[in-house]
Amino acid sequence: MKRHVILFLALILTAFCAQAEDGSKLWLRYQTASNATIKFSGKKSPTTDIAINELSAQWRGAPISLALSTNKEIKALGNDGFRITGGESGVTIASSSDKGLLYGAFHLLRLQECGALGATIDITESPAYRLRILNHWDNLDRSVERGYAGKSLWEWEKLPAEISPRYREYARANASIGINGSVLNNVNASPTILTPEYLQKAKAIADIFRAWGIRVYLSVNFSSPKIIGGLETSDPLDKNVQLWWKQKAAEIYKLIPDFGGFLVKANSEGQPGPHDFGRTHADGANMLADALAPHGGIVMWRAFVYNPLSDDRARQAYEEFMPLDGKFRNNVIIQVKNGPVDFQPREPFTPLFGAMQRTPVMPELQITQEYLGFSNHLVFLAPLFEEFLKTDTYARGQGSTVAAVTDGSLMGHSISAIAGVANTGSDSNWCGHHFAQSNWYAFGRLAWNHKLSSAHIADEWIRQTFGDDNLLLKNLSDMMMRSREAAVDYMMPLCLHHIFSTNHHYGPEPWFWNPNMRRDWQPPYYHKADSAGVGFNRTSTGSNAVAQYFSPLRETYANLATCPENLLLWFHHLPWDYKMKNGRTLWDELCYRYARGVDETRDFQKIWDRMEHKVDADRFAAVRHKLQIQARDAIWWRDACLLYFQTFSAMPIPFELERPVYDLPRLMKQPRSTEAYILEGNYLIK
Ligand code: BDP
Q: Dmax of the chain from CA atoms?
């Protein structure tokens, strides 16, 4: 009997520990429950209730007063901004809105968890972007396009009757880092989302999110009037179509009074759009904008457009959208991917940033690792986001960084926004890889404050997620900070791009060419390897995409002496024996970089193993397993790319470097399915 009791207790304990360490708590892992004194005398709202609850449960310092303030200085911080002042005898969080108080509460708790509170506090914060939005590429059948963390969080089949507790947890996590919008469904949008049945479901989610300061947005299919409205056309200049959208908007706002607006992918990758009717993107966007305007909604119109016949996909968004600058309604914002091709490990920024000046433009970043090893590879994306946001576009002279041209400060637009394609799913740890949580976190923190450094964000995240042991902090941060460059090295050094498998985007397939398929979905279109060399000539002797950048960037990129080496093969086609700055040939440099990428992944394994006694067993084992996959995949990448490019360069891999362990013909067989890659990477190549 006694033994049974012990066994039972042990079982309970194991279950408890397993639950406690499955990553489901994200970075919100407050250790001690407190019972803090929180005073609030203003008008209560569900949002102030949350702020009070969060603080009274977790705050371990002096009594706090929350103050809704009409004071001029506080008002100047905008709706979401706040000020925190005080010290050992008391702390005040002041904001002009309940949302600002909530953000202030989370800010204070973050400082507490990071051990970053001094004896006196005087903090003023307001977000860089007004709209900080996650884009979910979630389908209504709960599959997630480019999602690697299980199924969609939204249980459409059970909504609106059943409300998963995860909706609230998701909203809380977002609020804790300042994210204030969610586009619930895939940009490749099913028209069904706008049916009364699905709007009821979206309303149920919006009702949960509201108190956490999160607005719901929907991706819409441009042909909806015809497909679900029964109209003969979806032509944006047709009166009945316009009326249909007006009525649809009114119907949505009746259900969701704070509905954010629409996200639209039009005339891109087979999606319908205004071009189908001989109209422009502006005609399409403006029609939707007019329907939403009376209710305060916005249209986020994507510039991700390209045409299979063109010679350079990287030029196309600029070519199609620049002539329309200034032709959009003022509740339209153009959503532009950070790079001109597609979320590659490294790209220069899309030249529309800075160039479109009479229309607000918002960056679209990808948090889900479509091109960065899915949820298998540890790749901390803050350095990628930071590099992009801090690049100078020179649009209005020096200092016109991408951040400055999009956050409203330089161009003066009233809407400013930034979007990240979410990496969340039904997995218990939300993101598939424990470290992928840091990318969700980093997006939110940078959307709030794009001046934060990646190292600072890594430090914050580690402290909250794994603890504040010095050695742990040093090692994890070291690994995270090196991880993006490592991935660039073992996948696509020197700005090679899009040499992924055309189908799953996980592994290398630089050789893949099917004359019957779209050229611009296939690697040789991008790497242009031949016996003369490798790389895409985007200078004036090539596609001249450099001309889309402001001076002096266009000259910097065009000139081999000044083009940053990490962008080299994006802008230039160079001979295999081209001399790099360090004296190596281009071929040797490629070999060295692939080798360095592989070495980095082996090093990450060593770093992690040394941390075993500092991390709980479950997360330790899970990450160790993923690091093994990553190291194997890095070798796969190196061998596939070098052996393939060697068929053109005809040069030896420098003899001091490790030899390939795979053969090209075997690598070219690609025996695995996307699902298998998601599960375990390139486990065995048969
Ligand atoms: C590409 C993805 C595709 C998306 C598309 C987009 O491969 O699944 O639908 O971008 O952003 O990166 O619309």
A: 85
Among residues 428, 542, 483, the alpha carbon closest in space to that of 21 is found at 428
Reply yes or no: is the peptide bond before residue 46 cis, omega within 30 of 0.
no
Please name which of 446, 133, 413 lies closest in space to residue 260, comparing C-alpha atoms.
Answer: 133
Ligand 1 centre distance from Cα of residue 147 (Å) = 11
* Residues 413, 417, 423: CA angle, nearest 5 degrees: 170
Q: Is the dihedral of CA 277, 282, 287, 291 positive or negative?
A: positive
579 DSSP assignment: B
SS (H, E, C) 12-78: HHHHHHHHHCCCCCCCCCCCCCCCCCEEECCCCCHHHHHHHHHHHHHCCCCCEEEEECCCHHHHCCC
CA atoms within 13 A on the CB side of 211: 18
Residue among 305, 366, 370 whose CB has most ligand 1 atoms within 8 A, to mutate: 370
Percent of the chain with pLDDT over 90: 91
3-state DSSP call for residue 229? coil
DSSP 134-163: EEP-B-TTS-BTT--SSS-S--TTTTTT--
Angle between helices 98-113 and 454-465 (to 10 degrees): 80
Quote the ligand 1 centre to 199 CA distance (angstroms). 25
Among 516, 496, 519, 494, which residue's Cα sits nearest to residue 508?
Answer: 496
Structure confidence by residue, pLDDT tens digits, 240-277: 999 999 999 999 999 999 999 999 999 999 999 999 99
**Best mutation site among 342, 364, 368 for ligand 1, i.e. most ligand atoms within 8 A of its Cβ?**
342
In angstroms, what is the span from residue 145 Cα to ligand 1's centroid?
8
Radius of gyration over every alpha carbon of the chain, rounded to an integer in angstroms: 26
Model pLDDT for residues 477-502, shown as the tens digit of each residue? 999 999 999 999 999 999 999 999 98
Q: What is the rounded CA–CA span in Å between residue 39 and residue 89?
A: 14
Q: Which residues contact 546 (CB under 8 A, 6 or more apart)?
A: 538, 539, 540, 554, 557, 558, 571
Question: Could you say which of 342, 407, 485, 489 is catalytic?
Answer: 342
CA neighbor of 431 nearest in space, from 383, 369, 507, 479: 369
For a ligand 1 pocket test, name from 146, 344, 366, 526 the mutation site with the most ligand atoms within 8 angstroms of its C-beta.
146
Domains present along the chain, CATH in parentheses: 24-125 (3.30.379.10), 131-466 (3.20.20.80), 488-536+573-680 (3.90.1330.10)
Q: Which helix (H) or strand (E) holds 302?
A: strand 298-302
Give the distance, in angstroms, between the CA of residue 525 and the centroid of all CA atoms in the same chain.
26
Q: Say whether 342 is catalytic.
A: yes
Buried b (16+ CB within 10 A) or exposed e, 135-170: bbbbbbebebebbbbbbbbbbbeebbeeebebbebb
* 3-class DSSP string for 382-422: HHHHHHHHHCECCECECCCEHHHHHCCCCCCCCCCEEEEEC
CA distances in angstroms from 620 to 373, 380, 502, listed in the order given: 19, 17, 33
Ligand 1, residues at Cβ distance < 6 Å:
145-146, 187-188, 265, 269, 304, 342-343, 370
Q: pLDDT tens-digit profile of 584-622?
A: 999 999 999 999 999 999 999 999 999 999 999 999 999
Burial of residue 38 (number of CB atoms within 10 Å: 0-12, 13-18, 19+) = buried
From the alpha carbon of 371, which atom of ligand 1 is closest?
12
- Of 374, 373, 404, nearest in space to 388 by CA: 404
Reply yes or no on whether 155 is catalytic. no
370 is catalytic: yes
